[in-house]
C-alpha cells in the first residue's frame, strides 16, 4: 500500500464562458493517507473548483481540460477517477470519498428525525444490513461525533447549529470513506463551536485513518488543523508545505502577503492538537 491516497497530476479546469475562465491551472498535488491538507487562498482562486473537480462534481460550463486523478484504494487498487462511469462514480463518492459542504447543516430534512436521515445512508448503500444493524450503526455514529445516541429521534430544529453540523459529519463518516472533502464546514458557527468541531475532526482522522481536504478562507484556522497547506492563487498552487513551514518560513511572496492580511495571527500556539 502506498503512502499516497490521491494523486492529482497537471489538473486543469476551464469555465467555458465568454471569455473563458481558467479556474485551475496544471495543479499537481498528492494527498497522503491520514493527513489533513488545507487549501487556502483568496476568494475566486479556484479552491472549490479544484476540490470538486477531483471528485468530478463540476457541472457545465466547467470543463476538465487536462490532467489525471488517481485514487490509491486501501485494497491496493489504483482507480483512475476520470475513467469511471456515472454509476461507478456515484458509488465511489459515498464509499471512498465524502463531502461536508458549507452550511450543510441546513440541508437536513426538517420533517425527518436525524436518526432516520442517517439510516437512509445505510438503506441506500448497505442494503444488506438489517434494521437493527442500521439502528446500531446510527447510534454509534451519533456517539462518535458526540451528539449522543439518544438524539436519534430529534428533529433538526431541536439541535443547535453545531450539533447539526456534527450530524452532517456523522453522515459523511457513515460508510468509513478514505477521504473527506470539507468546504468551509465550520464557517457558519461561532468560534468556540468551530474549535471543538475541528479538534474532533482531527481526532477522528487519527482514529479512522481518513484523509481530509479542508477548504477555507480562514488561514489561521487552517494553520491549526492542517498537516500541510496548499496556497492557491489564480488557479495555481504557489506554495505547498507543512503548516509549520507556512507559518514560520513562508517561501512565496504571496504566502507572506496572505499571512500578513490576518491580524489575528499573533504568534500564539493554536488550540487544535494535531
Ligand atoms: N459557474 C461558473 N461560471 C463561470 N466562472 C466560474 C463559475 N464558477 C466559478 N467560476 C470562476 O472560477 C474561478 C474560481 O472559482 P472558485 O469558486 O473555485 O474559487 P474559490 O477559491 O473556491 O472561491 P470562494 O472561496 O469564493 O468559494 C473564479 O474566477 C470564479 O469566478
Automatic annotation (TrEMBL):
Signal peptide: none annotated. Keywords: ATP-binding, Cell inner membrane, Cell membrane, Membrane, Nucleotide-binding, Translocase, Transport. Residues 8-259 form the ABC transporter domain. It is found in: Cell membrane. It is a peripheral membrane protein. Its main location: membrane. InterPro entries: AAA+_ATPase (IPR003593), ABC_Ni/Peptide_Import (IPR050388), ABC_transporter-like_ATP-bd (IPR003439), ABC_transporter-like_CS (IPR017871), Oligopep_ABC_C (IPR013563), P-loop_NTPase (IPR027417). It comes from the Bacteria. SUPFAM superfamilies: P-loop containing nucleoside triphosphate hydrolases. The keyword Membrane applies. Coiled coil: none annotated. CDD domains: ABC_NikE_OppD_transporters (cd03257). The keyword Disulfide bond does not apply. Belongs to the ABC transporter superfamily. This is ABC transporter domain-containing protein.
Amino acid at each position: 500500500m502506498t503512502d499516497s491516497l490521491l494523486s492529482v497530476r497537471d489538473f486543469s479546469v476551464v469555465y467555458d464562458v465568454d471569455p473563458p475562465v481558467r479556474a485551475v491551472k496544471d495543479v499537481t498535488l498528492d494527498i497522503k493517507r491520514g493527513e489533513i491538507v488545507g487549501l487556502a487562498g483568496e476568494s475566486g482562486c479556484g479552491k472549490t473548483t479544484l476540490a470538486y473537480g477531483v471528485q468530478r462534481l463540476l457541472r457545465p460550463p466547467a470543463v476538465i481540460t487536462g490532467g489525471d486523478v488517481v485514487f490509491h484504494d486501501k485494497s491496493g487498487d489504483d482507480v483512475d477517477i476520470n475513467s469511471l462511469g456515472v454509476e461507478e462514480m456515484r458509488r465511489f463518492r459515498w464509499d471512498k470519498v465524502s463531502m461536508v459542504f458549507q452550511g450543510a447543516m441546513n440541508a437536513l430534512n426538517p420533517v425527518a428525525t436525524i436518526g432516520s436521515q442517517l439510516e437512509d445512508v445505510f438503506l441506500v448503500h448497505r442494503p444488506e444490513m438489517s434494521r437493527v444493524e442500521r439502528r446500531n450503526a446510527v447510534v454509534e455514529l451519533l456517539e462518535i461525533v458526540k451528539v449522543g445516541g439518544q438524539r436519534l429521534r430529534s428533529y433538526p430544529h431541536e439541535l443547535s447549529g453545531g450539533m447539526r453540523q456534527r450530524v452532517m459529519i456523522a453522515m459523511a463518516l457513515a460508510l468509513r470513506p478514505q477521504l473527506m472533502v470539507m468546504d468551509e464546514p465550520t464557517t457558519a458557527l461561532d468560534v468556540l463551536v468551530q474549535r471543538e468541531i475541528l479538534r474532533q475532526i482531527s481526532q477522528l482522522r487519527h482514529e479512522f485513518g481518513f484523509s481530509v481536504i479542508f477548504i477555507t478562507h480562514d488561514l489561521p484556522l487552517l494553520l491549526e488543523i492542517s498537516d500541510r497547506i496548499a496556497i492557491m492563487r489564480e488557479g495555481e498552487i504557489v506554495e505547498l508545505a507543512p503548516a509549520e513551514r507556512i507559518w514560520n518560513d513562508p517561501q512565496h511572496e504571496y504566502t507572506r502577503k496572505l499571512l500578513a492580511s490576518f491580524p489575528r495571527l499573533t504568534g500564539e500556539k493554536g488550540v487544535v492538537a494535531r
